[in-house]
């Protein structure tokens, strides 16, 4: 197993200290030389670690003065325009990630899922529910629906036996069936946690969530399965890069 990069280890320790209240909002964290001495690592490692928690909005650098805590709510920030598994994103931002499969069942797909997958009739399929954890805190509930018509070899017993061997459903379908996921087409909705989702994410029923729902496709644009991801935005946030469209020169422009 590959070792965790040192800068992530340092970043995670700093985030844990901040979350635990060792450094309050407005308080300066140790200087770069102090952190190097404390952790016994290089200057570049410290700089990468601090840069990682700056990107998360937990601390801010004041030029010539130091680095100060600006929030004790430690969260993960992801670029929503890039297709990456949540577990990978959590790890890439310096947090300890893990996933837990909570249930695998046979269901009838909703009309929304059937339409999004380009199917013409109602059908059954396998539903895989799993929690994504950041620093042992459940932050995302992922529900994936694999229709039988697209996965004729996938049985309930096979899914239950094999899915737990993989960190993600993306890895599962690649490892067991040789199918490579390429991209999602998602709709984003603001919802309340409710009686079913709230307890799983350790939230009150009226807590706000983001629901990301839509189909996942392979590299040939074939629909693979339908996703419903419930995201606790108190600890997992998205950034969106919006740019102006390129100016098009048309006849009559000068």
SSE blueprint and pairings:
Blueprint: H1 6-19, H2 32-39, H3 43-55, E1 59-62, E2 66-69, E3 76-79, H4 86-92, E4 97-108, H5 111-116, E5 124-134, E6 137-147, H6 156-162, H7 169-177, E7 181-184, E8 187-192, H8 194-200, E9 208-218, E10 223-231, E11 236-239
Parallel strand pairs: 3-11
Antiparallel strand pairs: 1-2, 4-5, 5-6, 6-10, 7-9, 8-9, 9-10
Helix pairs in contact: 1-3, 2-3
Keywords:
254 residues, alpha+beta, Arc Repressor Mutant, subunit A, Chorismate lyase, seven-stranded antiparallel beta sheet, two-stranded antiparallel ribbon, 11 strands, 28% helix, elongated
Structure explained in plain terms:
The mean pLDDT is 86. The protein folds into 2 domains: 64 residues, Arc Repressor Mutant, subunit A (Orthogonal Bundle); 158 residues, Chorismate lyase. It is an alpha+beta fold and 254 residues long. α1 crosses α3.
The H/E string reads HHHEEEHEHEEHHEEHEEE
What is the straight-line distance between the termini?
A: 60 Å
Number of strands: 11
Just name the CATH architecture of the largest domain. Answer: 3-Layer(aba) Sandwich
Radius of gyration: 21 Å
Provide the helix percentage. 25-40%
The average pLDDT is: 86
Biggest pleated sheet:
7 strands, antiparallel
Main CATH class of the largest domain: Alpha Beta
Structural class: alpha+beta
CATH superfamily of the largest domain: Chorismate lyase-like
Indicate the proportion of strand residues.
25-35%
Low-confidence segments: none
State the oligomer.
single chain
Q: If you consult CATH, what is the topology of the largest domain?
A: Chorismate lyase
């Amino acid at each position: 197993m590959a070792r965790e990069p040192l800068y992530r280890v340092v970043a995670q320790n700093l985030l844990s200290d901040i979350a635990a209240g060792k450094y309050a909002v407005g308080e300066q964290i140790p200087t770069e030389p102090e952190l190097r001495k404390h952790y016994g690592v290089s200057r570049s490692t410290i700089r990468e670690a601090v840069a990682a928690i700056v990107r998360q909005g937990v601390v801010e650098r004041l030029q010539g003065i130091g680095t100060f805590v600006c929030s004790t709510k430690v969260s993960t920030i992801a670029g929503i325009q890039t297709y990456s598994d949540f577990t990978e994103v959590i790890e890439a931002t310096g947090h300890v990630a893990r996933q837990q499969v909570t249930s695998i069942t046979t269901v009838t797909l909703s009309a929304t899922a059937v339409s999004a997958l380009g199917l013409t009739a109602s059908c059954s399929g396998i539903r895989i529910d799993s929690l994504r954890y950041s620093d042992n805190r459940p932050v995302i509930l992922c529900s994936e629906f694999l229709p039988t018509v697209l996965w004729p070899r996938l049985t309930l017993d096979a899914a239950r036996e094999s899915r737990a061997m993989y960190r993600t459903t993306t890895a599962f379908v690649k490892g067991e069936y040789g199918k490579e996921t390429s991209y999602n087409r998602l709709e984003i909705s603001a919802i309340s946690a409710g009686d079913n989702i709230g307890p799983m994410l350790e939230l009150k029923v009226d807590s706000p969530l983001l629901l990301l729902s839509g189909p996942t496709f392979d590299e040939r644009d074939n629909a693979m399965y339908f996703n419903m991801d419930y995201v606790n935005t108190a600890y997992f946030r998205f950034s969106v890069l919006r740019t102006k469209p390129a100016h098009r020169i048309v006849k009559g422009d000068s």
